[in-house]
Amino acid sequence: MKLKRASAVVGTPELPGDKSISHRAALIAAIAEGETRIQNFSASADCVSTLNCLRELGVQIKVDGSEVAVMGVGKTGLRLSNITLDCGNSGTTIRLLAGILAGQDFESSLTGDDSLKSRPMERISTPLTQMGASVVSTDGHAPLKIQGRNPLNPIEFRLPVASAQIKSAILLAGLHANGETTVIESAPTRDHTERMLELFGIEVRSEDRDGKRISIRGGQPVSPGDMKIPADISAGSFFMVAAACMPGSDITLRNLGVNPTRSAIVDVMKRLGVEIDILNVDNQCNEPTATVRIRGGLQATRENVPARISGAFIPNLIDEIPILAVLGTQLANGLEVRDASELRHKESDRISSIITNLKLMGAEVTEFSDGFYVKSSNLRGARIDAYSDHRIAMAFAVAGLLADGETEIEGADCAAVSFPGFFEILQGVVR
Ligand code: S3P
Q1: Taking a C-beta distance cutoff of 8 angstroms, is the pair 258, 231 a contact?
Q2: In this structure, what are the phi and psi dihedrals at residue 277, rounded to the nearest 5 degrees?
Q3: Atom 13 in ligand 1: which residue has the minimum CA distance?
Q4: First to last CA, the chain
Q5: Measured from the CB, is residue 50 less than 6 Å from ligand 1?
Q6: Average predicted confidence (pLDDT) for the chain
Q7: What is the β-pairing status of strands 180-185 and 156-158?
Q8: What is the Cα–Cα distance from 351 to 184, expressed in whole angstroms?
């Protein structure tokens, strides 16, 4: 994929349904008592992996465009699969599904592509084992073999890393426990699982005491219901940053999910003085949504930029850090990101992918074990490796719009992992 410098981005790009919320809708619908219709389901390859795994477990699923109908089989109705469940590139699929399978009376095997097989899995095998399932990994990685148990033991578990995927795996397993399971998080992570469980009629208690304590009582019935998934703010972030970096840009994102545990990028943009309007605030799928309009550019605030992102902010924009790194090259005082060592365990080692590619484009960058510092830099076109990482491919496509000369993204197809059609939609708004 080749890109050239642009002068602005203008328009109303059509974003896919939120990937994180779509996974949860399908997974919980599968164990509900009856049919759930989900509109605006994410077309991402990751969510297709979730649907395919659920089909292998005996769940009937009909897909009609972006509408998905899931015939729920109930909490104990999943069927033993004779094949290894292939979670593809999707960390959310393998970790959340592991939580559900831990509470089933049969054995399951889960695997994924090379990237997924290199990502840490002891973070879910430890709590699920404490709950009474047997989870055997391959040196802490997938493939995983899970011998489930019903009922599971309720546990109280403090998250060792701020991860919504670990929290969600435990809460989903907690549905199959004979008592109340509590997850304690020291920094808030995305709360889509809690909201989705509530939408399916399940009571989830949340209490601030020595961290945030989220509790679920096992044995509650899962009631199906219809829903429409909000547009994906992480997919929208590429357009937000492109607009912010180019004066004259004007981008509107409709029905965007603006859950406070996901929308820290909007706060960062505001802090940077970007003109950003939040309109038509609404609620869809037990999630806050809004129309978000961003106008370029950054010049007004080129002096005196608060250019550090760290601490409890990180989990709420963890997936936006590759595109924020690109934004950093356009800030007068650059951008420092710290406390983000989790980036090393994503679809690629994102700190390393960001550093290598920014350097190729002529940016001055310093690498830290838990982040990086990027200086204000004039970018030049280069041949970029996407490192089989969708967010790296899309972030550097935007960098290509800001760079002199031509930028070529090797392996750009991986953008479909979260955002099929991204490059066409981007070209459609480029001026
Ligand atoms: C996700 C949680 C985050 C995020 C990932 C999706 C989710 O991962 O990076 O893209 O849907 O729960 P962690 O929870 O492991 O940080």
Answers
A1: no
A2: -110, 135
A3: 163
A4: 18
A5: no
A6: 96
A7: parallel
A8: 27
